[in-house]
Amino acid sequence: MVVIPFAYLRATGKSMVFAGFKILSVLITLILNIYLLIILPQSGNSLRLFSGIFNSVAEVTDIFVANAFASFIILIAFIPFIKNINISIDKGLLKKMVAYGFPIMVAGLAYAINENLDKLFISRILGDDVNGMYAGCYKLGVFMSLYVMAFRLGAEPFFFNLYGTDGAERIYSKILTWFVIFASLCMVVVTLFIDVFADILLKQNSYKQALDIVPFILLANIFLGIYNNLSIWYKLKDKTRVGMFISVVGAVITILMLTFTVPVFGYIGAAYTTLVVYAGMAISSFFMGKRYYPIPYDTGKISLLLLSASIISFTSFHFFRGHHTTNFLLLCGFIVIVLWSEKDIFLKRVDIAH
């Protein structure tokens, strides 16, 4: 019920209000989870709601309660934004929305398959213990996932508002380049100092056996972010069916590859699958977009950044893991590559200063 108000805030550029409501929702959920799962059990007065309905352990029920209450509070907070809305049905608009939105919904379901099916395969084939290691180390990709999600939330309204203006294609291109710069930097930092992040996020040392998936997951998420950038063309051109096709094909490939790679290569096969599918989706969207809405992306610079970040990350992980001095020097080297790739901007600023 708050999806439309949140979309309204994004479309009207009220980013601070949008962020405020989102942060409020997270804080309420966090506080309630701490209260229900930690404070009450320790006090001996455990509160358990709807346990019979959910047919689950009480702690899981409390998590549902916390999320439901947080959602209700946000709905109340949105009353000033929605109280003047008159509900009516515009059949013509409804048809357009279904035609535009249904393929995106299907693509979202396909994305859910791509993102979650690997855990199911690993659990069924290799066991829950291995799946625990895999899922635990997969969390180290959360930094990239949050960056990609935050970028998408902020970029999509901007892309739509920019469409049709002079120089829009050039700005789209520059945005993708800078997205890759920061995403690659995130990948390099996490991989170079992976043991530090693992000590913070992983509670069990046994989970660290699966840390070799992290560089693949980080790189896969970069390609997912690139795909989100590139996908703007089919949303702008009302070609959402193309996006649905790409996502569904990606889901099918995910199923086929997991069926083969997990039994043969183990949990690392799932990481290979995630990388191959997201890279394939990004590349497919790029070439299809050249036909319907050509944008002059700087593919040379983007390729250089991705290749450099990948080489540095995998070299560090396999040969210099735990050598913080060496890894710091590698990080400095990557920053030099970034500065060199954007040297034109810095040279222009020097000229302006003179």
Give an overview of the whole structure.
- The chain has 354 residues and is mainly α.
- It has two domains: 3-87, no CATH class; 92-353, no CATH class.
- It is 82% helix and 0% strand.
- It is built from 17 helices and no strands.
- The chain has helices spanning 3-11, 15-43, 51-54, 58-77, 79-82, 91-126, 128-138, 142-162, 168-192, 194-201, 214-230, 232-236, 240-265, 267-292, 299-319, 324-341, 343-353.
- Helix 8 packs parallel to helix 11, helix 9 runs parallel beside helix 15 (299-319) and helix 9 packs antiparallel against helix 16.
- The radius of gyration is 23 Å and the shape is globular.
- Residues 49-56 and 350-354 have low confidence and may be disordered.
List the defining traits of the structure above:
354 residues; mainly alpha; globular; disordered C terminus
Note the gap between the termini.
55 Å
Helix content: over 70%
Helix and strand succession?
A: HHHHHHHHHHHHHHHHH
Which sheet architecture does the biggest sheet show? none
Derived structural class: mainly alpha
Q: Give the number of helices.
A: 17
Count of distinct structural domains: 2
Q: Note the overall shape.
A: globular
Strand content: under 5%
Radius of gyration: 23 Å
Total E-strand runs: 0
Spans where pLDDT lies below 50 across 5 or more residues:
49-56, 350-354
Mean pLDDT across all amino acids: 84
Secondary structure layout:
Layout: H1 3-11, H2 15-43, H3 51-54, H4 58-77, H5 79-82, H6 91-126, H7 128-138, H8 142-162, H9 168-192, H10 194-201, H11 214-230, H12 232-236, H13 240-265, H14 267-292, H15 299-319, H16 324-341, H17 343-353
Helix pairs in contact: 2-4, 6-7, 6-13, 6-14, 8-9, 8-11, 9-11, 9-15, 9-16, 11-14, 13-14, 15-16
